[in-house]
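Can't paste images in this forum, so I'm doing it all in text. The chain is below; anyone willing to post the predicted structure tokens underneath?
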Amino acid sequence: MRPWLLFLAALVLGAPAQAQIPPSAAEVQAYRGLHAAAAAGDVAAAERLIGSGADRNARDGHGRTPLHVAGHRGHYDMAQMLLKQGADANALDSQQYDLITIAAVRDDARMVKIAISGGNSPKNVTSPYQGTALIAAAHLGHVEPVRALIEAGAPLDHVNNLGWTALLEAVILGDGGPRHVEIVRLLLAAGAKTEIGDKGGVTALGHARSKGQAEVVKLLEAKKN
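Text version of the structure:
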């Protein structure tokens, strides 16, 4: 996730800011075997390694499997092949991120759909904030991942350990611009509950009013009425 947004969440509620960590250039250079093939997107090499008995769910120093690495680097064919070859679609790295949440944070709707089709559940509780891929995507203003996750049955009203739902995060950490307005519209159309408040009891409408998010206020007031 974007570090400044995570810092804002931490500042507001005193939580430790913990960002999603993609493989660094040094890590990628040091990878060997299936992790190296996944990082390079070399499907043929990965298939040979799997055929020779390579562990599909091997972990790097941050608990990332080759599937996580493929997700971080946007290698679609690699992710599809690993899933077909039995990689654990719901594996969590050391920070409790799975493929679908990695893709949601990257604004990668195509990878979100690959994850779903490969058995990665949009209902998984992920991240140090005990949230979901939908909350992450809503927070960051990633419209197409939000749309894909809603269509796949992601829980609309899951409350993370900050006390926020996807709707609350879209307002509290959103900028009230077109992307977050569209996300609020999508969440409301899907049936997200507007009456859920944060830890202080303030609803999405209350936050939208205090932040001057006029278009969001209109949507929420229309739903309330």
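The radius of gyration is 18 Å. The CA atoms of residues 107 and 142 lie 5 Å apart.
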